[in-house]
Amino acid sequence: MYKNFFKRIFDFLFALSLLCFLSPVFFIVFVGLFIANQGKPLFFQLRPGKEEKIFKIVKFKTMTDKKDGEGNLLPDVKRLTKIGKFVRKTSLDEIPQLINVLKGDMSLIGPRPLLPEYLPLYSEEQKKRHLVRPGITGWAQVNGRNAISWKDKFKLDVWYVENQSFMLDIKILFLTIKKVFVSEGISAVGQATTEPFKGNL
What does the UniProt keyword field contain (predicted)? Predict the structure, then answer.
């Protein structure tokens, strides 16, 4: 009953309340990134959701679009702005995704929505992560986030899909708050973000 009905109601009400509460922070970050990114404070990207349905995710834009002499984007670490680094460290870049939750594209809790090009690379077991709506935070995020391997992330995602419950979601919410305050697992070792998923080699 919770998974099929009450979870969506909980998502909508909590996301609406949180968006209203965080609106002053949203405005300040929006203006700061508008200036840092030359008028581009938001970042839109296609992501697969429940049942692999593609939707457009919205986040705060923490990196510039700087390119090298050949027209290729510079590495993440060179495009990450000072304010962008702070926004990522405090997880404020996730706030706009509350809009995705209100629309029904995402849930507050669930496997993180990754890139569409990863879809053919998943094993049958890993594909189970798409049986539920993707989340702003999830079991993998409170158990390592970007500091753990892709294989371990997917195991944690599938475990969540098979064990989701109201109490587990509440636990993940509280653990997420803790992780934000201590800034754990934001980046992979030696990376500004994380390495791309290259399949199960």
Answer: Membrane, Transferase, Transmembrane, Transmembrane helix
Q: Angle, nearest 10°, between helix axes 7-21 and 166-182?
A: 30
The first and second tokens of residue 23, run together, are 């609106």
Is residue 92 in some structural domain?
yes
Helix (H) and strand (E) counts for the chain?
A: 7, 4
The conformation of residue 151, written as its DSSP 8-state character, comes to H
Say if CB 95 and CB 26 are below 8 A apart: yes
Question: Looking at the domain assignment, is residue 70 inside a domain?
Answer: yes
Map tokens 């508008």 to a residue.
34
Tell me if 40 is assigned to some domain. Answer: yes
| Pairing mode of beta strands 42-48, 54-60 | antiparallel
In a domain, 49, yes or no: yes
For the stretch 156-190, pLDDT in tens is 999 999 999 999 999 999 999 888 777 655 444 44
Structural domain count of the chain: 1
Query: Which residue range is the domain that position 105 belongs to?
Result: 2-182
pTM equals 0.86
Q: Is the pLDDT of residue 142 over 60?
A: yes
- In 3D, which of 113, 69, 81, 122 has the Cα closest to residue 94? 113
Cα angle value 22/35/106 (rounded, 5°)? 40
Average pLDDT for residues 16-20, to the nearest whole number?
95
